Amino acid sequence: MYLEIITPEQTLYKGDVESILFPGSHGDFQVLNNHAPIVSTLTKGKVKIIGKLMIEENAKDKFQFNERETVLDIESGTVEMNNKKSIVISTRRKEDFMDYLENYLEI
């Protein structure tokens, strides 16, 4: 299935994955290829992605990697799954927001 992860600052990932585990507002849930259409809100937690991801250099620092999965920490967001395509719109992580403020305000 196709996954796209978007934040206010940039698109973090576009590409194929095997499955995704989300921190849903009413509990964690997983989507696989051919999943029924769904729209859900996400809460603070980890988005766990299974599959071989080719993440661009400018986004690699947003993810954690291990042998089984790629993990993205989020504060909140929304996910839509439809027609073998999952789009995640995530708000900034607190660390990213603080880095942005420090750079913007030159603290």
Explain this structure:
This protein has 107 residues and is mostly beta strands. The chain contains one helix and ten strands; from the N terminus they run E-E-E-E-E-E-E-E-E-E-H. The protein has one helix at residues 94-105, and strands at 2-6, 11-16, 19-24, 27-32, 38-42, 45-50, 63-65, 70-74, 77-82, 85-90. The strands form two sheets. It has a five-stranded mixed beta sheet, with no helix packed on it. A five-stranded antiparallel beta sheet has the order 4-3-6-8-7, with no helix packed on it. 20% of the residues are buried. The model has no long low-confidence stretch (mean pLDDT 86).
Short synopsis of the structure:
The chain is mainly β and 107 residues long.
Give descriptors for this structure.
107 residues, mainly beta, 5-stranded mixed sheet, 10 strands, globular
